Amino acid sequence: MSPLAKALSDRSARVGVVGLGYVGLPLATAFADSGFDVLGFEVDATKVEAINSGTSYIPDIPTEEVARLVGLERLSATTNFSRLAECDAISVCVPTPLRKTRDPDLTYIVKATEEIARHLRPGQLIVLESTTYPGTTVEIVAPTLSSAGLEIGREVHLAFSPERIDPGNEQFTVTNTPKIIGGMTSECNVVAQLLYESIVNTVITVSSPTAAEMVKLLENTFRAVNIGLVNEVAIIADKLGLDVWEIIEAAASKPFGFMPFYPGPGLGGHCIPIDPHYLSWKLRTLNYRTRFIELADDINNSMPDYVVSKVSAALNDSAKPIRGSKLLILGVAYKRDITDWRESPAVPIIRALQERGALVSYQDDYVEGLPLGSHGAGDRLCSVELDYEAMGEYDGVVIVTDHRYFDVTAILANAQCVVDTRNLTGQQGREDPKVVKL
Ligand SMILES: NC(=O)c1ccc[n+]([C@@H]2O[C@H](COP(=O)([O-])OP(=O)(O)OC[C@H]3O[C@@H](n4cnc5c(N)ncnc54)[C@H](O)[C@@H]3O)[C@@H](O)[C@H]2O)c1
Asked: What is the pLDDT of residues 265-306, one digit of tens each?
């Protein structure tokens, strides 16, 4: 057994996590909880201070858990990247956004890899976890690490292992979500497997980092395409005078060959709206057009406008125009019970309603403010207090995110009209003429 394999097996290895966001912090706490000494690397000094003072800024990770691990001296964070040399295994969890042109922005991966290469020493394992296009580990990360003069697979190890965390999901966590690993060599697979077996019940190895990168993109493209399909089915059902939610509920009773997906106001978050574009971009370089991805993207991107058309129709029923109407948006996070509003469809919906002259407020206990104030750049729109009786003062209420704390009966008792994009109102909404559903 190599010294690295031994140190991973007996938990004497020091684990580094680069990027302590929605993915990196849960990973770092999981490694620390399993007995490793974990050092987090962050460019954002406020996050480093928060961790070192035992405070969490990610809702899925309780502050008490961070405080406990910091107290046990198993978890700490730093902005000093020269300390990468102290780590035996390093997982990279930096952002992979899109550029304005919707091409992949690998800047964060490149910077993090360059830092690692600068401090690389024999016996280290590097694992990229950020979602990216097939080929990134082999074409971008490996050459940068090799420039340090160490041989991958012999002196240092490299693998890609996609992060599959689902923020807010209480049923599937780091531990019980199987982990995919694609190492550069079989020895890379062996050591990466040893690392992740400490925190994950099931580890599955594939033949290469590129295969592991493709696994992640298949998963998220599958979701994006199926959501696109069901969003179109929502439009079709509406044209046929049918309730799409009833149709899906009944279809889902089939125990095989059907898997329910649900329509909504549009895609949101850091993954589903973005990841398929990484695949499209890569395939464009190979002169192939990913038609399913493009079509789903078209439909999903049109949903905020579709919601606005529903709001317009609902107000029209009371002979009101959008201009001058007071509207309350319920929920702006991109999905239920989380704080993340990145790429949330609430943003284009609010913008479109404001552009048409509506006076828009929103209520979301998870999101304090959005950069959508009516006084130009920098002006914030802040969440209003949750006051069900005051909902009657609005011309309409639009449910964009179905947070569990919303009281459907109280909403229906007070609101003048409700546009429900998530079926939060369920059967009650189906029977209530003032509810317009997607
Ligand atoms: N959020 C999710 O649900 C989710 C799920 C699966 C996969 N992913 C993928 O995981 C990756 C990370 O996503 P996230 O949601 O955690 O992003 P995030 O923005 O929450 O966190 C990334 C962190 O990395 C830090 N960072 C940026 N550059 C750095 C550098 N050079 N060195 C050290 N730290 C740096 C940022 O300050 C930030 O704190 C992305 O590729 C994303 O697609 C995210």
From this structure: 999 988 999 999 999 999 999 999 999 999 999 999 999 999
Question: Residues 6 or more apart from 383 whose CB is under 8 A from it?
Answer: 332, 362, 363, 364, 365, 367, 368, 369
* Ligand 1 pocket check for 329: Cβ under 6 Å: no
36 and 164 within one domain: yes
Q: Is the CB of 43 under 6 A from ligand 1?
A: yes
pLDDT (average), residues 43-60: 96
Last residue of a domain, one of 193, 210, 227: 210
Residue 157's DSSP bridge partners are 125
Whether residues 145 and 243 fall in one domain? no
Give yes or no: 271 in active site.
yes
Which residue's CA is the closest to the ligand 1 atom numbered 15?
A: 22
Q: Is the distance from the beta carbon of residue 42 to the nearest atom of ligand 1 less than 6 Å? A: yes
**Cβ–Cβ < 8 Å for 47, 35:** no
Q: What confidence tens digit (pLDDT) does each residue in 70-119 have? A: 999 999 999 999 999 999 999 999 999 999 999 999 999 999 999 999 99
State whether the beta carbon of 335 lies less than 6 angstroms from ligand 1. no
225 is written with which tokens? 């395409």
Q: Are 263 and 190 contained in the same domain?
A: no
Distance 367 CA to ligand 1 centre (A): 19
**Contact by Cβ (8 Å): 148, 161:** no
Identify the weakest region by mean pLDDT among 63-67, 177-181, 195-199, 378-382. Answer: 378-382
Mean pLDDT for the chain? 96
State if residue 352 touches ligand 1 by the CB under 6 angstroms criterion: no
Helix (H, G, I), strand (E, B) or coil at 127: strand
Q: Ligand 1 atom 1: the closest Cα is on which residue?
A: 22
Residue 131 Cβ contacting ligand 1 at under 6 Å: yes
The ligand 1 atom at the shortest distance from the C-alpha of residue 275 is 43
In whole angstroms, give the CA distance from residue 162 to residue 86. Answer: 24
DSSP code of 260?
Answer: -
Query: Ligand 1, residues 23, 116, 339: which to mutate, most atoms within 8 A of Cβ?
Result: 23
In a domain, 30, yes or no: yes
- Please work out, in degrees rounded to the nearest 5, the angle formed at the alpha carbon of residue 275 by the alpha carbons of 62 and 103: 125
How many structural domains compose the chain?
2
Q: What is the CATH number of the domain that holds 42?
A: 3.40.50.720
The protein residue whose alpha carbon is closest to atom 7 in ligand 1 is: 163
Residues 6+ apart with CB under 8 A from 127: 89, 90, 91, 92, 158, 159, 160, 161, 181, 192, 195
Q: What is the pLDDT of residues 116-145, one digit of tens each?
A: 999 999 999 999 999 999 999 999 999 999
